[in-house]
Structure to design on (359 residues):
């Protein structure tokens, strides 16, 4: 085991020799005859503990202690004042400056050795505890990352399960979650939205967007996969998928003990992405700001992607035509401010659409 290093700082060489005679059998002793030299030594080779005299010329021990404690790289080195100043006010000042102990001269060799041993043991225990805490924190970070990855995989998989029943949708869930993120980041610049659209909430919105059509798993294949226009009765059945999605996610929420923003946003998106700004949407017929922000974002993202994608009932529209249709829906289908935000970042949305285009 490496010997602990102790720095003795005293302007009287005889006092340093006494320290060496008491401690050199167990420890490596370095010496400095003034404060400036002590600081230089500490800078080059950090000791495990410092024995510091107070009454020294030019720079006294109090000042040396202050400088060491003010430096982040040296403030954790234990300092024991070893001094002839024996008044209570002197000891109080030394402890206030950050020293861990105060021993007056003349001192008992056994007391000095015992105090040094105890403080070095305490320092070692603190370092071990700090290392253990660091390792635990790292494990928590790793575990949190694993849980987030599992959450992401589970949500995307569930969304993909719903989309897999509709073979025309392809990369729809991936594209729409990026549109939602791009619009949310743009809207977060506005006073109206900045308190809600925090970086954390934007991430949650991005991660929950793939569940917007999870309710489609409850729609019969004869309707979901019909290669033509739905009848009025069939469309009424199709309009149930937001409610199916809401109920499924609500069931999951009830099994949890904590308030999970991720699932709350997922429920809002699944339930409200077919609501319209003017109240003509479904399933609740909400209007204006009564529609959750998450639902309004998803509504625009969903429609934009549907417009630029090929469907059995329509060809893929050019980006410019899709943007024009979105503009026409401003104030009726869509939140006007979200339309304006979409227009500002439309090129980024189009680039996303091209990056994740269906084969």
């Amino acid at each position: 085991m490496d010997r602990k290093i102790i720095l003795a700082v005293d302007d009287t060489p005889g006092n340093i020799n006494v320290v060496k005679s008491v401690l050199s059998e167990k420890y490596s002793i370095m010496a400095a005859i003034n404060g400036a030299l002590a600081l230089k030594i500490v800078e080059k080779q950090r000791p495990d503990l410092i024995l510091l005299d107070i009454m020294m010329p030019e720079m006294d021990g109090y000042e040396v202690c202050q400088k060491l404690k003010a430096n982040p790289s040296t403030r954790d080195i234990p300092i024991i004042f070893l001094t002839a100043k024996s008044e209570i006010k002197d000891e109080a000042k030394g402890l206030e400056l950050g020293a861990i102990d105060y021993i007056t001269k003349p001192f008992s060799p056994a007391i000095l050795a015992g105090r040094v041993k105890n403080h070095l043991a305490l320092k070692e225990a603190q370092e071990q505890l700090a290392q253990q805490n660091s390792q635990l924190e790292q494990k928590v970070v790793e575990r949190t990352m694993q849980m987030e990855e599992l959450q992401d995989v589970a949500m995307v998989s569930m969304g993909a399960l719903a989309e897999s029943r509709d073979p025309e949708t392809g990369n729809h869930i991936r594209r729409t979650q990026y549109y939602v993120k791009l619009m949310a980041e743009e809207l977060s610049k506005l006073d109206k939205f900045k308190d809600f659209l925090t970086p954390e909430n934007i991430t949650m919105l991005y991660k929950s967007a793939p569940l917007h059509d999870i309710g489609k798993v409850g729609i019969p294949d004869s309707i979901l996969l019909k290669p033509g226009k739905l009848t009025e009765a069939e469309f009424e059945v199709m309009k149930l998928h937001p409610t199916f999605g809401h109920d499924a996610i609500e069931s999951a929420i009830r099994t949890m003990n904590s308030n999970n923003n991720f699932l709350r946003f997922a429920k809002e998106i699944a339930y409200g992405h077919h609501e319209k700004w003017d109240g003509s949407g479904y399933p609740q017929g909400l209007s204006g700001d009564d529609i959750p922000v998450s639902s309004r974002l998803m509504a625009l993202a969903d429609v934009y992607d549907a417009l630029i994608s090929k469907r059995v009932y329509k060809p893929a529209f050019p980006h410019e035509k899709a943007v024009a249709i979105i503009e026409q829906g401003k104030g009726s289908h869509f939140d006007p401010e979200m339309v304006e935000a979409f227009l500002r970042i439309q090129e980024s949305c189009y680039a996303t659409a091209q990056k994740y285009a269906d084969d």
